[in-house]
Each structure stands twice: as C-alpha cells, then as structure tokens.
C-alpha cells in the first residue's frame, strides 16, 4: 500500500482505516500544521508525530490507547502522597511553559519542535488546546497538554520535574474533566506510565465510533476557564 502525500491545497485526509500496519498507524505525510488542518485531523482521530526537520507524518494507530475514567487507577502510595502534598494544580494558566517543558524534559529526544509549539500555542489561544500545571511553592514542576474534542480529550504529552507531578496533573484534570461531563481521554499509544494508571487499548474502529459521538458533546466554557483544580491541604476549600 502506498503512503499518501497530503495536498497543500486541501485539508482532506485518507480514511484512517487505510493506515499502514507497519509502522502501526502511519496514514499520510506532508501538508502543514495550520490550525484548520490540525483540527480536521483530530476530528478524525489523526495526529501528527514526526522527527523535527523531516516531513510531517500523520498517524491513526490500531489499536488505540485510551483511558476510561471509571478504569483510572491510583496506587495506595499515590493516594497517600495526594493527602499530604502541597502541590497546587491549575488549568490553562501557563500553556507555553508546559508545552516547552514537555519538549525539553525528555531524555529520549522530542518530536515537539518549534513549529509544533507555535501551532499548538495558536490552538490554545483559540480555545482548542489546553494545559494543566502543577506548582510547588510557585515553581512549575509538572503538567500536561492536549486537544479538546467535545467530551473527549486528546492527551499529547506530559512532563515531571518532581515526584508524582505528572500523575498529580492527570489525576486533578481527570476529576475536573469528568465533573463537567468528560467521557474519555485519548492516550494515542500505550506506554508503561499510562498503563499503570489504567489506560487500555481498544480497536481503532471503536475509538473512531466514540470520537464521532463525543466530539459533538460540549462541556461548556466554564470547564476550560483558567482556574485552580486542587488546593494545598492548608488552603480553605472553595
């Protein structure tokens, strides 16, 4: 099967079901990172992932890694940590710092190039991309970012500079997201970290079916307003 090159004059993608089996999910190459193309991709269960300097590659793997909120797992040690930590978690207060940290805090290299950062910052400014920040005494120590598709959230990357910071970010966000009607978190490809939190794999066809349903379910503007998600233990409750 030949890999299709995207036209610079069209936002059309191939059917995700035509993606290659090896490498798993590779669907197309080329195109650009314009906001319209990125949003079109996410609406179809497609995302960009490529080595900086090479052609843009577009993926839709089968199976797809997802996290169902009801299957989210917190270890006993993490629950104990959460009861005593002074971390503070916020939403949409430092998107640039979070995506930059996700690019720079990886030992195995990064696909998050300057072009990716610029493209997703534009999506953030247009209320499509969102960040979660974890703070310790005013210092950013962890976080994650991704793209909202109605009641489905497409997680892109996370980072941690302190113990359990990225897990804390995901935990705080998940409870907030579900509280507003969130149904599913897309993890794209399963890894040991997400698997330890309860992520699982489902057939791509099932994921695309859920995406088509969930992307039309609005959570309301209040869900994505900049706000604090978890207060330190000695802070009065809301």
From TrEMBL:
<dbReference type="GO" id="GO:0008914">
    <property type="term" value="F:leucyl-tRNA--protein transferase activity"/>
</dbReference>
<dbReference type="InterPro" id="IPR042203">
    <property type="entry name" value="Leu/Phe-tRNA_Trfase_C"/>
</dbReference>
<dbReference type="InterPro" id="IPR042221">
    <property type="entry name" value="Leu/Phe-tRNA_Trfase_N"/>
</dbReference>
<dbReference type="InterPro" id="IPR016181">
    <property type="entry name" value="Acyl_CoA_acyltransferase"/>
</dbReference>
<comment type="similarity">
    <text>Belongs to the L/F-transferase family.</text>
</comment>
<keyword id="KW-0808">Transferase</keyword>
<dbReference type="InterPro" id="IPR004616">
    <property type="entry name" value="Leu/Phe-tRNA_Trfase"/>
</dbReference>
<comment type="function">
    <text>Functions in the N-end rule pathway of protein degradation where it conjugates Leu, Phe and, less efficiently, Met from aminoacyl-tRNAs to the N-termini of proteins containing an N-terminal arginine or lysine.</text>
</comment>
<keyword id="KW-0012">Acyltransferase</keyword>
<dbReference type="GO" id="GO:0030163">
    <property type="term" value="P:protein catabolic process"/>
</dbReference>
<protein>
    <recommendedName>
        <fullName>Leucyl/phenylalanyl-tRNA--protein transferase</fullName>
        <ecNumber>2.3.2.6</ecNumber>
    </recommendedName>
</protein>
<dbReference type="GO" id="GO:0005737">
    <property type="term" value="C:cytoplasm"/>
</dbReference>
<dbReference type="Pfam" id="PF03588">
    <property type="entry name" value="Leu_Phe_trans"/>
</dbReference>
<keyword id="KW-0963">Cytoplasm</keyword>
């Amino acid at each position: 099967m030949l890999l299709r090159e995207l036209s610079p004059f069209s936002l059309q993608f191939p059917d995700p079901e035509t993606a290659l089996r090896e490498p798993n999910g590779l669907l197309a190459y080329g195109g650009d990172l314009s906001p319209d193309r990125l949003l079109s991709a996410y609406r179809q269960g497609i995302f960009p992932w490529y080595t900086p300097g090479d052609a843009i590659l577009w993926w839709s793997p089968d199976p797809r890694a997802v996290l169902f909120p009801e299957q989210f797992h917190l270890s006993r040690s993490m629950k104990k940590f959460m009861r005593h930590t002074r971390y503070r978690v916020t939403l949409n207060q430092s998107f640039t710092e979070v995506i930059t940290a996700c690019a720079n805090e990886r030992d195995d290299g990064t696909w998050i190039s300057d072009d990716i950062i610029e493209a997703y910052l534009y999506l953030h400014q247009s209320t499509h991309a969102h960040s979660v920040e974890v703070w310790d005494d005013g210092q950013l120590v962890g976080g994650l970012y991704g793209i909202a598709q109605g009641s489905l959230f497409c997680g892109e990357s996370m980072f941690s500079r302190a113990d359990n910071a990225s897990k804390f970010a995901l935990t705080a966000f998940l409870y907030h997201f579900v509280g507003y009607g969130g149904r599913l978190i897309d993890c794209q490809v399963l890894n040991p970290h997400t698997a330890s939190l309860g992520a699982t794999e489902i057939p791509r066809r099932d994921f695309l079916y859920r995406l088509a349903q969930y992307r039309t379910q609005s959570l309301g503007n209040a869900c994505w307003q900049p706000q604090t998600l978890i207060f330190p233990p000695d802070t009065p409750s809301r």
